[in-house]
Amino acid sequence: MTAKLSSLERSERRLGIALLAPAFALLAGVVLYPIFTLIRTSFSENKLTEPWLAKPWIGFENYAKAMGDERLWEATWHTLLYVIVTVPGAVALGLGLALLANQPFRVKWPVRLGLLLPWALPLVFAGLIFRWFFEYQQGLVNNALIWIGLSPVNWLTQEGPAFFAICVAIIWKTSSFAALVLLAGLQTIPKSLYEAAEVDGASKWQQFWEITLPMLKPAIIVALIFRTITAIQTFDIPKAMTDGGPGNATETLAMYIHKTTIDSLDFGYGSTLAVLMFIASAILTSIYLRHTRRDPSAGRH
Amino acid sequence: MRERRVAAVTIRKVRKVFGKVEVIHGVDLTFQDGEFVVLVGPSGCGKSTLLRMIAGLESVTDGEIDIGGVVVNDLAPRDRDIAMVFQDYALYPHKSVYDNMGFGLKMRGASPSEIADRVKEAADVLQIGHLLDRRPGQLSGGQRQRVAMGRAIVRRPRVFLFDEPLSNLDAQLRAEVRIEIKKLHQRFGTTIVYVTHDQVEAMTLADRIAVLRGGVLEQFATPDDIYNKPASKFVAGFMGSPPMSFARLTASADGKTLAMPSGTVLPARGGLVMGGLSGGKSYDAGFRPEHVKLGADALPGAVNTTARVEILEPLGAETLALLTVGGAVLTGRFPPQAGVKSGDEVTISLGAADMHLFDTETGRALVA
Q1: Which residues of A touch B84 (CB under 8 A)?
Q2: Residues of chain B with CATH 2.40.50.140
């Protein structure tokens, strides 16, 4: 039951709707409509290579095919590995960088610039830079190995080393975003808490464990969520470094979708894969969000 | 049985420089064992900086700070055997009240049973036993303040440091907690150094008050002496509510009387004449409101004069009157139902015998 609105309240409400309408229209055009089309396409046979087939509605056939698609499961497994390794890796490295940047430097801009630079760099660039780092003959890494007396490694053409090299590149590239989020969190911790802890007798290490880490928990969770969402979509860096090789050993979900849709021009099956990936990341994100809502210390000072 | 752990604190020629700004200019102070000392002054006078130097949260640029016979300049806060109550309480928001209070002991490696005993004891004293499981976010301002004090008490330090602990409380609560703090001092007898900008807190709590201004010590004395024998015009005007009011007077040629701009003549106190008022020189005369009374001959040794009532502030038990007296503006304490109105011309008694005189240039008091 709604209370009767006065004319003032009604005109306020009309104004509110009018102000929101452009944003809604834009969202509908660039987000809702493509998602709707994506879902519709996923239920059809739609191959540009076989245009004579038209685009027949085939129901769940694509989905059934996906369940039995070994390459899909491999790509899913690779993506999961990237998430498991690079998300905590980037947040841990980001925490270190944030702690460093939070030190009272006399000149702050070099530190801030150092933090922002990897973040501002396009992902493909980062991939290309690290591809060169891990290159067999001229790469920095192998040169360093030779210099300290070890034999060079064929980084990008072996399954394990390739995965390792890609993880290093992803962690380097994404840790600066985590660092920015965590630095903002660090700056909200009142200085007097550290002074109180200092008087209470806590060492610097104890202050970190007893104050910094628990107070930073909400920011860490935010960094983890954002990092996870982007990690599920990992594409550019492995694309630039190995293009999924050797074989399909470093191929991610996003790369497989790209190959299916753009390289093989199978829009129907590609859309199905995209919908599945969308569902998986939605589930993962909602688990995180539920956790933050349950945490009593999150969001309170 | 609780042992009484106290320490004297000595501050020797302490200076503090931030960058190029010197905020404390060589302060000397000695606090006795178990003394309650209040550092008071307007904002920016260096009182908090001085306290933080005692705590070890700020380095000492020059001079020495001595706690219990040990120079602590180079000791970390945790090694100084002090506890501090912060202005914003600085409670750990993610820890329960119990863990907040026990944190200092835990960091010092006390056993869980000892922590439990001491936290319970302190909680009983402060009547916060029912709050031990809560987090600071679930407490009222007054409760947080108690927890902050509890955290200090639990440690049983030799010196308590309070940094404007009541400034975030409302007026009524402030008066209650003030009494609480005084009780705590009577119970534990620990040396307390307490910073405030509120002269009422300073007067009510302190054994001795140190009045600071611009990084310089103006006066260090008992509340009684601060009130009755202020060493400078600044101290006289800062301490007391309502504050002392001032009039510019000119000494007669023989230095035995002082004249107001209107011509009203006040006799100088005997001692002041001996001390030597220079004939013809101007002085700032200070009158406490209680020495400006309604009616003729209302005070011993008073001079009667006329005054114009500008503003009346009834307080219930008394009425404060802002008066124009012979070209000066003075505050007087009038009886509650005096029957005067703003704009009235009234006769007042000016307590010449209780008048304070200050040098117009240095602001120092002329000692009678």
Answers
A1: 195-196, 199
A2: 245-359
pLDDT in tens, B214-270: 999 999 999 999 999 999 999 999 998 889 999 998 888 777 788 887 778 887 765
Residue A83 token pair:
């998430």
Mean pLDDT of chain A: 87
Opening angle at CA B294, ends B312 and B249, nearest 5 = 90
Residue A202 lies in a domain: yes
Phi and psi torsions of B21, nearest 5°: -100, 120
Q: Which CATH class is domain B245-359?
A: mainly beta
Q: How far is B195 from chain A (nearest CA, A)?
A: 16
Is A5 inside any structural domain? no
Q: Per-residue pLDDT for B3 more than 80?
A: no
Q: Which residues of A touch B91 (CB under 8 A)?
A: 196
Rg (CA), chain B: 24
Which is nearest to B86 in space by CA: B172, B40, B145? B145
Q: Which of B49, B57, B96, B147 to mutate to test the interface with A (most CBs of A within 10 A)?
A: B57
What CATH code is assigned to B9-238? 3.40.50.300
Sheet with B265-267, strands from edge to edge, namely B265-267, B257-259, B245-251, B282-287, B356-359
Q: The complex's ipTM?
A: 0.84
Chain-chain contact of A196 with B86 (C-beta, under 8 angstroms) = yes
Instruction: Say how many domains are in chain A.
Output: 1
A80 versus A1: which is more confidently predicted?
A80
In terms of pTM, does the model score above 0.90? Answer: no
Query: What are residue B15's DSSP bridge partners?
Result: B25, B62
Longest Cα–Cα distance in chain A: 83
**CA–CA separation, B285 and B358 (whole Å):** 6
Smallest CA–CA distance, residue B165 to chain A, in Å, is 13
Residue A103 maps to which CATH number? Answer: 1.10.3720.10
In a domain, A267, yes or no: yes
With beta carbons less than 8 A apart as the criterion, state whether A211 and A193 touch.
yes
Tell me whether residues A297 and B93 touch, CB distance under 8 A: yes
Where in the sequence of chain B do the CATH 3.40.50.300 domains occur?
9-238
* pLDDT > 90 fraction of chain B, expressed in percent and rounded: 64
As to burial, measured by CB atoms within 10 angstroms (0-12 exposed, 13-18 middle, 19+ buried), residue A66 is: middle
- Indicate the residue of B55, B93, B135 with minimum beta-carbon distance to A199: B55
Cis peptide before A246 (omega within 30 of 0): yes
Neighbours of B300 (CB within 10 A): 9
Residue A74 CA to residue A66 CA, distance in Å, equals 12
| A191: closest CA of chain B, how far (Å) | 9
Q: Is residue A154 part of a domain?
A: yes
Nearest to B58 by CA among B27, B15, B7, B89: B15
